């Protein structure tokens, strides 16, 4: 599913899992209307929110690599957007 770049992603559940020096990781669940597998439980995803742009170049390189690599054993990069004042990377 591709969302309009101006769309507000309807997160119905967000639980803070970890906090580090550059950001936070949340366990999130989207509204059931965005479920990629209708008829199944809406999956939980990881949302990494960068609060600092100090390591921005390294994060960009890691995300570029995740976008290019396709394997069942590699975390899939789903997209980025603004969340709680930082850049959110959905994986």
* CATH-assigned fold name: Phosphorylase Kinase, domain 1
Work out the count of structural domains: 1
Give the strand content. Answer: 35-45%
Q: Strand-and-helix sequence, N→C? A: EEEHEE
Description of the structure:
It is a single chain. With 91 residues, the protein is mainly beta. The chain has a single domain, classed as Phosphorylase Kinase, domain 1 (2-Layer Sandwich). The chain is built from 1 helix and 5 strands, in the order βββαββ. Strands 1-2-3-5-4 form a 5-stranded antiparallel sheet, with no helix packed on it. The mean pLDDT is 76.
Summary of the model, kept short:
This is Protein kinase domain-containing protein. The protein has one helix and five strands; from the N terminus they run βββαββ. The chain has one helix spanning 56-68, and strands spanning 11-19, 23-30, 44-50, 79-83, 86-90.
């Amino acid at each position: 599913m591709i969302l309009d770049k101006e769309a507000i992603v309807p997160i119905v559940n967000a639980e803070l899992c970890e906090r580090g020096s550059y950001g936070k990781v949340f366990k999130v669940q989207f509204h059931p209307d965005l479920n990629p597998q209708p008829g199944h439980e809406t999956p939980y995803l990881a949302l990494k929110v960068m609060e600092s742009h100090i390591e921005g170049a390294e994060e960009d390189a890691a995300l570029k690599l995740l976008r290019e690599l396709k394997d069942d054993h590699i975390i899939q990069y789903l997209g980025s957007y603004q969340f709680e004042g930082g850049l959110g990377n959905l994986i």
